[in-house]
Every structure is written in C-alpha cells, then in structure tokens.
C-alpha cells in the first residue's frame, strides 16, 4: 500500500500514523453500497469517515450484460474510484482482513489497524470460481465465459460471434448471487443474437439451473416462460454445476433433487457460467456473520439493517443476509435507511427507518426488449411496480432505453453522489 508523506514527515512516522488510524465512521467497501452511503453521510454533515477499498477502478457492473451482447464497449463501464470517493473522506486503499467488533477495530491486509466508533459493512460479494472443478483454468478460453467479470464480458461477445451452432449452455448456481436475473439476461440476449444471425434453429439452448423455477415472483415468471418458449430454450432445474472439462467440452452437474447426488454430463459448444457466490472470506470467518451460515452473510435486522448483536454496526448491499435480490436498486433503497438509523444510533436514539425489501431487476429479454421486475419482501417476493402509467409486466422498448441510457446516468451522476 502506498504511503504519502506530509512535509517533513519520516517514513517511519507515516507508517506509525497509518497503523493507528481512528475514524468516527468506517465503511468497508467502496463499491455501489459503500460509495452511495458515504456520499449520503457526507451530505448529512458527517466529516470523520474512512472507506476501506482496494480497487482503483469503479465498475458499473449491470452494463456487462450489454457489453456481452455487443451493444457497448467494456471501457464505458469503468471509471476511476477516486472520482467518486467523497471529498474529505479518507480512502484506505487496502483490503479489509479482520473485524474485531468488541474492540471496534478493523485490520487490513497491509497491516493497518483502524479504530471506529461506528462501522458499516459493504464489501459486496465473493465470486467462488474455485468451487467448480476445472472452471478457473478455462475461463476466457475454449468457448467458456462469464459476464460476471470485466475482462470476460467482452469474451462472451467474441465467442458468440465465433459460434456456428450446436449446444449453447447457460448455468445458474444454487447460492444467492448478485443480480439474480443476470444468468437469464445473458441467455436471452445471446439467443436473440443467434436468431438474428440465423443459427438459432441450429442451436440447442439449455439453461442448467440449480433453482426450481425461472423466477420466484409469479408476474415475472409468467413473462419469462413466454421468452423461453420464444427462443426454444430447454430449462433443466435442480442442476448445480460441479465441474467443467474444457478438453471434452463437457459440463458436469450434480442433481440437487436426487438424494444419491447423481451427476449429469451435458456436452457444450458454448458455455456461459455464473459462479457460486458467498460473502467475502474475512466475513464468513468472522464474528459478524449469521451463526452457522457457511456463506457468511452479515447478520443484520432485515428492516433496520442494524447488526443483531453489535448495535454500532450496520451492513447493506450484497454481503447482508437480506431475503431479497442483491442489486444496485436494492442498495439505492437501503442506503437512506442506514443513514437515518446510523444517525439515530449516533445520537443515542433507537433506529426507526425500515427497509421494505425493495429490489428490481431489469430483465433483458432480447435486443430492444426488457421487463422491469420490481418487488419487495414477501413469500414469494411481492410484485411492486413504482413507475406510474406504464405496464412493466410486459417486455418494453422504453424499459430497454432506461437500462441502456437512463440507469447508467442515474448511477454515475446521482446515486454515487448521494442524490437519489
């Protein structure tokens, strides 16, 4: 980690200062959740804050679907992180490694120990490529790709253009993932591209999903069932991807509905993989995780977003144990709740603001087609449209324009500035 010396300061004293930081509010994570929250807190008058974030680049990940479809270039989704860290917020460019909530300390990989009065945990989610045997070694090669990485989304587009027909296989894991609809967005846009290219008729499109249905919310599922029929897609549920053989071009699935855990092998000519996902390792091995939860989600009240055992700790975004989709839209509604409740706790009051589980998923179903799925807490999640006078149950061109132009503008210019 680089150290900046002030005038007349020795390197030794700089290291000493670095390792003894203390801030009133410390935010772990400088992605969508961390930056949005920091911006809102800064606008609320908070000045003694630090963000722990290792990356020098901030990505607008929802656009990687369109990168993979050849609609936009990958570089349009990346901007310098420093442009969005609010002024006067101390940016610790390092990885969080350990949280000690009893002593109110965060230790970084670089060796810094940062004290806090209040902590907000928002480091996002971990992509567990290693949990699928043979996958990590073949990503970006052998017609195996994924839209879940900046460098791989362009590979999806490259491989689609090389594809001559055969079996196009798309997977979805059984763990919670960021943007639950992303596996299907990749599939539908690819199928539409193959249709336009004239080779969809020569292609078997298979959806190997560990889930039990296309989508939990009935209003959304009904539309997606029509999309699947339109492209002739074959859904195969209860299938957890266990291994990839790049030489034989075979994907091996474990059958989740079989007590014997038998396996099914599906040959492929093109493979798009969504990896299993979990909370970052430093969380799942630490005291803030839900007790007994192997995936390590942070144990917060699903409405107030305050930690259940440590009242000076809050969490939002993908790392939290919230029974709703892990999306930027969810963060946009969670951030003001955390701000209000954190300020209440800081002033000795009981948190009153409530998050209702709102999330949305702009489901791309083809070029120029999108269904805007919006929902709140429920079993299943309850359909909850927020745009007046428009029937968002349908695939719409105007909603495609919203994703292509409106949402990126809102993200970079308003959300990350704490304005919406």
Outline the secondary-structure elements.
Blueprint: H1 11-18, E1 21-28, H2 32-43, E2 49-52, E3 57-59, H3 64-68, E4 78-80, E5 90-92, E6 96-100, E7 105-108, E8 113-121, E9 126-127, H4 135-138, E10 144-145, H5 153-162, E11 166-172, H6 182-197, E12 203-209, H7 218-231, E13 234-236, E14 239-245, E15 250-255, E16 263-267, E17 270-272, E18 277-278, H8 281-284, E19 313-315, H9 328-346, E20 359-366, E21 369-376, E22 382-383, H10 397-415
Parallel strand pairs: 1-2, 1-8, 2-5, 8-19, 10-17, 11-12, 11-17, 12-13
Antiparallel strand pairs: 3-4, 6-7, 7-8, 9-18, 14-15, 15-16, 20-21, 21-22
Helix pairs in contact: 2-9
Name some characteristics of this structure.
FAD/NAD(P)-binding domain; 10 helices; alpha/beta
What does this structure look like?
- It contains 10 helices and 22 strands.
- With 420 residues, the protein is of the alpha/beta class.
- It has 2 domains: 11-125 and 279-346, 3-Layer(bba) Sandwich (FAD/NAD(P)-binding domain), CATH 3.50.50.60; 128-276, FAD/NAD(P)-binding domain, CATH 3.50.50.60.
- Strands 1, 2, 5, 6, 7, 8 and 19 form a 7-stranded mixed beta sheet that branches. The chain has a 5-stranded parallel beta sheet with strand order 10-17-11-12-13, covered by helices on one side.
- Strand 12 (203-209), helix 7 (218-231) and strand 13 form a beta-alpha-beta unit.
- Helix 2 crosses helix 9.
- The two termini are 33 Å apart.
- Mean pLDDT is 95; it is low at 1-18.
């Amino acid at each position: 980690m680089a150290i900046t010396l002030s005038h007349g300061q020795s390197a030794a004293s700089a290291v000493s200062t670095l390792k003894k930081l203390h801030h009133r509010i410390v935010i772990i994570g400088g992605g969508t959740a961390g930056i949005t929250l920091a911006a809102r807190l800064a606008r609320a008058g908070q000045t003694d804050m630090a963000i722990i974030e290792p990356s020098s680049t901030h990505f607008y990940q929802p656009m990687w679907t369109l990168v993979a479809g050849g609609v936009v270039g990958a570089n349009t989704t990346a901007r310098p992180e420093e442009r969005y860290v609010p002024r006067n917020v101390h940016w610790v460019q390092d990885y969080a490694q350990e949280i000690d909530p009893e002593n109110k300390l965060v230790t970084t990989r670089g060796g810094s120990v940062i004290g806090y009065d209040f902590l907000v945990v928002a480091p996002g989610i971990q992509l567990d490529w290693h949990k699928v045997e043979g996958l990590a070694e073949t990503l970006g090669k052998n017609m195996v790709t994924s839209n879940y990485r900046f460098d791989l989304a362009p590979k999806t587009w490259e491989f689609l253009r090389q594809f001559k027909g055969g079996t196009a296989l798309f997977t979805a894991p059984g763990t919670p993932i960021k943007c639950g609809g992303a596996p299907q967005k990749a599939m539908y846009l690819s199928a539409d591209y193959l249709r336009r290219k004239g080779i969809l008729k020569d292609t078997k499109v298979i959806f190997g999903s560990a889930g039990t249905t296309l989508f939990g919310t009935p209003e959304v599922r009904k539309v997606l069932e029509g999309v699947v029929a339109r492209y002739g897609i074959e859904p195969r549920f209860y299938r957890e991807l266990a291994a990839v053989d790049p030489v034989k071009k075979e994907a091996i699935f474990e059958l989740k509905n079989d007590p014997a855990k038998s396996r099914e092998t599906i040959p492929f000519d093109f493979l798009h993989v969504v990896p299993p996902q979990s909370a970052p390792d430093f969380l799942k091995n630490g005291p803030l995780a839900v007790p007994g939860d192997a995936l390590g989600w942070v144990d917060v009240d699903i409405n107030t977003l305050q930690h259940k055992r440590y009242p000076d700790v809050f969490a939002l975004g993908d790392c939290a144990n919230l029974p709703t989709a892990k999306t930027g839209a969810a963060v946009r509604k969670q951030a003001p709740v955390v701000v209000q409740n954190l300020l209440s706790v800081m002033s000795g009051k009981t948190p009153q603001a409530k998050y209702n589980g709102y999330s949305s998923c702009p489901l791309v179903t083809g070029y120029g087609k999108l269904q805007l799925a919006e929902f709140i807490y429920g079993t299943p999640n309850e359909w909850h449209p927020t745009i007046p006078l428009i029937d968002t149950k349908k695939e719409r061109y105007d909603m495609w324009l919203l994703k292509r132009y409106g949402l990126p503008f809102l993200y970079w210019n308003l959300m990350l500035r704490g304005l919406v």
